[in-house]
Design goal:
The protein is α/β, with parallel strands linked by helices. The chain is built from six helices and five strands, in the order E-H-E-H-H-E-H-E-H-E-H.
Length: about 150
């Protein structure tokens, strides 16, 4: 069995690489996809459409261009991991989790215990809540090889 896994959320740590390395070490047949993780590039994704002095319209344009990739990759995935870090509020990750739930796409959340209350609805719709990337890899191992 093989899976395509969409890795959503926080872009400031190496969690995506940890999961990828863990899946490779476990011999799992997994292809990983993700949003654009270059923050300045993502923020400027719609900048070529027209110049905007107002930050709202610049962000609005870029969000729509980024959504082309995000929606397509989530729809094409078999499973998603939604990571919430502790440094920034990842509203886009919460939106991705909601999109997965609406599509009935299985997902797990990955976050520390101190954000459990804030993410209670997101976690309630998830198939699991993980606190480590090793736990994510173990879920993948179980699903793909059990």
């Amino acid at each position: 069995m093989s899976f395509t896994v969409y890795l959503s959320g926080e872009i400031h740590t190496e969690w995506r690489d940890e999961i990828s390395r863990g899946a490779e070490a476990a011999g799992l047949d997994v292809a990983f996809t993700s949003p654009v993780t270059d923050h300045p590039a993502s923020d400027a994704a719609g900048g070529h459409l027209r110049a905007n002095e107002n930050q709202f319209w610049r962000d609005h344009q870029s969000a729509k261009v980024n959504a082309i990739r995000t929606r397509t990759l989530i729809e094409q995935s078999d499973f998603a991991v939604v990571r919430f870090g502790d440094q920034y509020k990842q509203w886009n990750a919460a939106f991705d989790a909601g999109y997965c739930a609406a599509l009935r796409k299985p997902y797990v959340t990955l976050h520390d215990e101190d954000t459990v209350h804030a993410l209670k609805e997101v976690d309630a719709a998830a198939q699991a809540w993980c606190t480590t990337t090793d736990q994510v890899v173990e879920i993948l191992r179980y699903v793909l090889t059990a």
